[in-house]
Amino acid sequence: MAILATAGRDNGRRRTLQKRKSGFSFAVPALLLIILFFVTPVLGLLLRSVTEPELGLQNYAELIGSGTYMRIFANTFLVAGVVTALSVVIGYPVAWALVVMPRYWSQVVFAIIILSMWTNLLARTYAWMVLLQRTGVINKTLMGLGLIDTPLTLVNNLVGVTIGMTYIMLPFVILPLVGVIRSIDPAILRAGALCGANRLQCFTHILLPLSLPGVAAGALMVFVMALGYYVTPALLGGTANMMLAEMIAQFVQSLVNWGMGGAAAFVLLVVTLLLYAVLLRFFGASRIG
Amino acid sequence: MLLDFDKLGAWKWLLVGTTVLVCLFLLLPIVFIAALSFGSSRWLIFPPPSWTTRWYGELFSDSRWLTSALTSLQIASVVTVLSVVIGFLAALGLNRGSFAGKELLRALFLTPMILPVVVLAVALYAFFLQIGLAGTTPGFIIAHLLIALPFSIISIGSALDGFDKSIEDAAILCGASPWEARLRVTVPAISHGLFGAAVFSFLASWDEVVLAIFMASPTLQTLPVKIWSTLRQDLTPVIAAASTLLILFTIVLMVIAALVRKGRKS
What we know:
By secondary structure, chain A is mostly helical. Chain A has 13 helices and no strands. By secondary structure, chain B is an all-alpha fold.
């Protein structure tokens, strides 16, 4: 009897184990949160872009038809492109150095990168606003060195935005690239050298091609992030050099034009999701995290 | 050859040189801000004519700075707890569940992280205006929870990946109820993942600017909103003082996180 009872209880526990398989119910709180406060508001905003002030695509037509808005789009893509290129060109050697450096030094560099990444975004942007102003340290140093005669305009224009954003994006290029370069087998490079390739050939024929997927993935990610950036362009760019995210905020906050705001937001949303789809399609999910 | 530090030849100096320059570039604003916060010049002349703690005095004598810091702390704390709990449950479902559309659900949960924040901010602002949550603490918490949750799901999910589920099953076979097994066996085993989730969730809320600008009201401001609105008026050195304290706070958090990681290894 006792044995049977134990067996019965064991079966019960095994059934408990099997019953837990589905597991969907665990995800319900998060799902509710996302549907109610993420999917609904975003769809609601998109709906307003085609219904306000009246039903139709007139908001999108206005966005495309106006020279002012097109210049903002052009500015945004230009800055995002330049920031991406600078980040990759500057970040690649640093990532490479981090892989080969003595361990102690690479840890110091890692600490500096993480510190700058974790420092409050506004604190960093404020620092650049002060550093780059006409009477700022950068201009004074350049004039002191005799490189320039009159102060350069480095803030309230796209130059300031580019410097500030490259500063923010560099860690996002360097950190994934370290993983990519580290995963390359040094033996392949030794083989290249044994076959008579010099350092430049080894770089252009082995190291660069092998790390190119990682470079492309990192570049695409930074480009997407830069497209939608709000704080740094708003503070360093000034009102005359608006970027897309700022334009969306302006439509909503200053002009209370939800139709146009929604339309501009939808354009940014679609471009972002398309670029992420490219990223996932060509480089796989593992490279992005 | 190119991946061996001693055999890089002239390339070595190119790499080291770039790395040193980039490190200086990354450190420049941080060190500069800290130095500036003790400078006596209201017009931020550098190097400053003399040194002073006056800006820290102004910072602490203005109650609005303190109030906004406390608001930030309060919101970030609630967000952290909710994000870890909901994230833990979601990660359990996503990692162990077997239901249709699981990967789609995972992608949906992570979307708020990759979407431009300004889109989410404008959409939530519109929605909250309609349902009466604009400018309220719950509205603030919900907004920050949305961007904190993906960090929790990723951090806890990867910890769950490294945990052998059969240990939990063994506890159940030994007579524990499923929840008892989860809380007393699984949770302690993945505590580093939960800790990581908590730190990232806290920082995601504490440092967040864009959502906060839209969720704030004249009476409800987080620290970043206070910095933002002050910055838009003028570049007062008080912001340098506030920024320096924020940077110190970040360093303390980093050191704690590093110590926890070290403690786990040994």
